[in-house]
Amino acid sequence: MNFFKRQWMVPYLFLAPALIGTIAFKLYPIFIGFWESLIYTSFSGGAEKRIFVWFENYQYLFDDKIFWKSLEITAFLTIIINPLQIAMSLGLALLLMRKSKFIRIIRSLYLLPIGIALPIATIIWGLMLDPNQGLINGLIGVFGIPPQPFLVSENQALWCIIAIATWKGVAFWMLFLLAGLEDIPKQYYEAAEIDGATPFQKFRYVTIPQLKRTILFVFVADTAANFVLMVPMIILTKGGPLQSTNVLIYEGYRSGFYYQDWGRSLSIITILTVITLIVIGLQLLFLSEKNEGIKVK
Amino acid sequence: MIMHFKRQWSVYLWYLVIFIGLIITILPFWWGVAASFKSNSDIFRDLAPINIRAFLPGFSLESYVAIFENDFGRSMLNTFFVSITSVAGGLLINSMAGFAFAQFRFKGDNIIFGFVLLSFAVPADAIAIPLFKMMRQIGWFDTFYALIIPMLANGLIIFLYRQFFLGIPKELIEAARVDGLSWFGVFWRICLPLSVPVTLGAGLLLFVFQWESYLWPLIAAPSPELHLIQVTLGRFSTEYEMVWNQQFAASSIAGFLPLVFIYMFQKQFVSALTGVEQK
Description:
The complex is a heterodimer of chains A (297) and B (279).
Chain A: H1 2-5, H2 9-36, E1 39-42, E2 49-52, H3 56-62, H4 65-95, H5 103-110, H6 118-128, H7 135-142, H8 157-183, H9 186-194, H10 199-227, H11 231-237, H12 248-257, H13 262-289
Antiparallel strand pairs in A: 1-2
Helix pairs in contact in A: 2-13, 3-13, 4-8, 4-10, 6-11, 8-10, 10-13, 12-13
Chain B: H1 2-36, H2 40-47, H3 62-69, H4 72-103, H5 109-119, H6 124-138, H7 144-148, H8 155-166, H9 170-178, H10 183-194, H11 196-212, H12 215-220, H13 229-239, H14 244-264, H15 266-274
């Protein structure tokens, strides 16, 4: 009797460790982050004083030129890097769908950057892009191009970071698109061929509609990942030169860890989280709307 | 004849594009590993002006010896410890949760599952700062606890296990229950042993997450005795800015192990990530 009474607890017991971990370390910090963004910490007289100031931290932020510049850079980065990475991943996935004797080894080689952590990729690329002795300047010198400043130039640094993140990211996102492409039944292409479709028509009317769900997933996940891209900034540019790579997430990190201004730091993180959710929500809304009528697995 | 020529032409173009792409993909690896076996002055000599020797490996082990004198071994051991504990703990608690979602209907199951899915949409770097404040409050700041415990629960791994356990025939589990096996026995003796493929993929994911994590260990455990491998690498590149060969050597070692594992279990890794069974 006692045994049956306790049965209802069984699933919760199995669930408990992971659920506690998820709530405590993944969901609760979001609320903490918001809550702490309403608090101003002062260090007057050596003692830490915490004052609840409502939205004052946000007010300061909105009057702050550095914040707006940072927002602008984040917007620019988002608009460039995400379509670029998706287009390149899709292009690469299509290239790697082709049958060839060497396709297995070619695919494996293209997957190499997935196994390399971003800090490592950042360090190696940082040395390659070194303005004085870097490999890239050596290589372009062979073609008669004068040495470029790359990461120490206000105009080039962000593009260099885009290049590094893309080098690292394309193979990863390509993996999902490749899996999606291989899932498309061959008969669809055969049917299109019988109808006399050109390669472009096959791409437009078979591949794209069939791949839509995968592309949507990759687009959303990639956008979310790039909103928090800051390892290259931490290791290479420190947000510079002249704030040209100072994205929101890095500004938030710097406000907290360099200047101990936690209210400002967490206000920025909260704003970034809200922006991320809005952008992802819009992507889901616009891109999945036309999904009706397409075969859903 | 023209048809044939056109097809040939497109094959050549394909090879050309693939070849250029491969060079861009591989160049950093090639150059980095080659340079890690050179003395610092040799690296610079081969670059200015650039010549073919820049791409040929040297024979010097000086950089490798030097990084281990710089406490690199310590951070490798730390990373092994943290990764292995995280894999073991993470596999256990996430597979248990996956089992609960697959086997039982209970009050609130859909809502809880929704929260789990939501949790893996939360980017780890965005919650790192509030999580850091939390660690300071509960006294885990700058300890191994901070490096391991927050990383254990993982929505993606729960999801992978749930999908796998859903495929186990109900009759098998009912038969075991009739034979008097407890629910934990069913999980431990029947379901878990069946889940080798998903466990390999999930374990590899957890391992790679820990091995490659940078921001969290950087802020949560600043003491040198607790440094993980990526943090040490980052430090190398700022503190020893001109010592290129050591940066290359450290990067080569840190990059090697995950690559080997990923290549050994490529099939499981890809299907764990993409949710598609590889042929």
